[in-house]
Recover the amino acids of this structure.
């Protein structure tokens, strides 16, 4: 359990009205009407309020991948299901974000991947996300950069199974990431890439904001993190003071994760 509540900070509160959140920041919210909704386990606390950034209304769902996730053994089997982020998971994700900044790898990019529209079944999302982050880490390393990341899986009515990923990607390597990521998706799914499956934007709306205006980047990152955590349980949200809360939907296997360099073990070793 966390003893401290997550601060409800706005740009004007933090900087006397000098800073504003990026107006175009929709954080990759998704929609996929043809898919059947999952059954929620609790009633929504707040209705969705973000304008849809990606529409999947015209996309079908391709053939499914094997259901095994390939990570974590039985803990990620089809029998392990969840419907919301727990307080412990949120505490870990928030601590990981802080540690990423501490080690000089602040999150600079938000990537949303609609796995179900790409042909990945719910039970295969953990394996697919794991492969994507592995390919991203190795791809950036080949160009001389380390990275750090956290991710959260969501599912639900008109959304389908998808992943929100916050990652450190240097501005100079964004063209490299953009060029490679569609190929990674084809390798992971075995299917041709469908337009709109991946949505990747700089946090704060422009490249290099973390260097050019660190304070503004911090405010926008806080908003992005709050968005990623919106699938919290009612109990966790009450502890953390989350202002936005939506149903996270039914997930099979891991619901969230971090890169090893900002995980609990790495944080403990650094401290």
């Amino acid at each position: 359990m966390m003893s401290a509540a997550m601060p409800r900070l706005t740009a004007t509160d933090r900087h006397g009205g000098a800073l504003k959140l990026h107006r175009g920041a929709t954080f990759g919210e998704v929609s996929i009407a043809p898919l059947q909704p999952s059954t929620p386990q609790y009633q929504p606390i707040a209705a969705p309020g973000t304008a849809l950034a990606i529409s999947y209304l015209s996309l079908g769902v391709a053939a499914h991948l094997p259901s095994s996730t390939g990570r974590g053994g039985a803990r990620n089997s089809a029998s392990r299901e969840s419907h919301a982020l727990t307080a412990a998971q949120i505490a870990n994700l928030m601590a990981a974000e802080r540690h990423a900044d501490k080690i000089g790898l602040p999150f600079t990019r938000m990537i949303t991947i609609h796995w179900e529209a790409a042909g990945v079944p719910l039970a295969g999302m953990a394996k697919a996300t794991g492969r994507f982050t592995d390919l991203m880490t190795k791809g950036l390393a080949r160009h001389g950069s380390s990275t750090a990341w956290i991710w959260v899986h969501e599912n639900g009515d008109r959304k389908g199974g998808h992943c929100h990923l916050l990652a450190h990607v240097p501005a100079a390597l964004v063209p490299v990431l953009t060029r490679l990521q569609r190929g990674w998706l084809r390798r992971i799914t075995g299917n041709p890439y469908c337009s709109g499956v991946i949505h990747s934007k700089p946090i704060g709306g422009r490249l290099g904001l973390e260097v050019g205006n660190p304070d503004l980047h911090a405010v926008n990152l806080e908003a992005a993190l709050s968005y990623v955590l919106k699938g919290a349980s009612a109990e966790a949200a009450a502890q953390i003071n989350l202002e936005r809360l939506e149903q996270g939907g039914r997930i099979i296997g891991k619901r969230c994760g971090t890169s090893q360099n900002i995980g609990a073990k790495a944080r403990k070793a650094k401290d």
Summary: The mean pLDDT is 79. The chain is about 30% helix and 10% strand. The first helix runs from residue 11 to 15. The radius of gyration is 18 Å.
